[in-house]
Amino acid sequence: MNTKQLQKPNNIKFAGLYLMILGLLFSCKSGQVNLFKPASPHEQYQRKLVAAGLDKTSMGSAWIVSSLSVFQKALNINIPYQETGYFPAESVSATAYRFNIVQGQKISIKLSRKGVQPFMIYIDIWEQAQNGQMKLVAAADTIDQSLQFEAKTSGSVFIRLQPELLRGGQYTLNINTGPSLGFPVKSSNSRDIKSIFGDGRDENSRKHEGIDIFAAFRTPAVAAAGGTVTRVNENNLGGKVVWLRPKDKDYTLYYAHLDLQTAKEGQQVVQGDTLGLVGNTGNAKSTSSHLHFGIYTSGGAVDPLPFVNTVIKNPPVISSAVSNLNSTMRTRAAATLYASTDQNARTITSLKSGTIVKVNSANSSWYKIELPDGQPGFIQAKALTSINKPLLKLKVTSAQQELYDYPDSLHAAVKLTLKTGTQLEVLGNYNSYQLVKNNTDQTGWIDTLP
Known about the structure:
Blueprint: H1 17-30, H2 41-51, H3 58-69, E1 75-76, E2 81-87, E3 95-101, E4 105-114, E5 121-128, E6 134-141, E7 146-150, E8 155-163, E9 169-179, E10 193-195, E11 200-201, E12 206-207, E13 211-214, E14 220-222, E15 227-235, E16 239-246, E17 252-261, E18 268-269, E19 274-278, E20 290-297, E21 300-302, H4 305-308, E22 328-331, E23 335-338, E24 347-351, E25 356-363, E26 366-370, E27 376-380, E28 384-386, E29 392-395, E30 401-404, E31 414-418, E32 423-430, E33 433-437, E34 443-447
């Protein structure tokens, strides 16, 4: 059996459609078709499908439906994250994940691909409002190969990957976070932060509204972003302070305890320009020299650390064998399917020994798999094994034993009717069905219930 196949059939006829779609795909790459104003590469491609009438075909409509329904199956991932996956050209595929972001982070997404022919993967980032409406945050395709966006608020977002029709291959996705601003003290980094946002002050009568970055006396305090100096003044708490409004941002940066202010009100600065020199003015006279750095929005102070944190973590190395991508495998023993790769992840379902799965991607020591009914989830790679060696052999005893292309006798197509006495190898199971192979290497599902 060729294990590089999906059990669930597409029920899509390629005849006639193939040349039509290939012609459309070529036009999508070679030039713009101004049917409407495009909102994203994904939407532009979808509009071309509609304009060509492909939304009326099984494959075209399945692609559009999949682009929406995939959000309902989104799994949770932790950032930084890395996976290598596979989109088969013969299937209509899409995948989606949900992950948390923190205001001020810059999220970087890189996507590389490897296939027999170049193919496009559309990348979209979405956030979901309280009313359930989805809002597009950022979008790209693999022509650009990378995507960056700044987290305007803290919460969770969705990422969707969807390849174009009739093209596919292997891809590697990498998602990481970093600071959206430069570090505000020259020659310093996050290790020099000794007091964080929310720490108690004045016997816990108030909370610290910034971070304290300790540095040698008169070290330059620099612009964390380009923008306009809006105020240069003194106050009791901050001593000598400078306020900077970054260009095109809805917040203001606050530099306090300066020994010397070098910036002037109304001055235009670029990232890295010196605004003053670190000191201990104001209520910091009894402490070592440091910069109090704050960020203020219309709603008040927010934690500056995610905006300037220089610590960037690498995603776990992929140790799961990528040679199993797009393969049909089975569980070695009873196993658990999880909603994420977190140790305390929610359990989706428990799988019996020998359960058939399709391997879609590999990350660290896990596989993201799909059950024959389309349910995705994460499973430890060590829990799976090849189906090359049969679990057992059996002989057909019923004159009407039918071989299905999918483990659902009510909806699946019948591949053939097995003759009495036919020898079968059992490759795995799912619910009351067994995946079998006959002596001519034909595979399919049989119902084990009477």
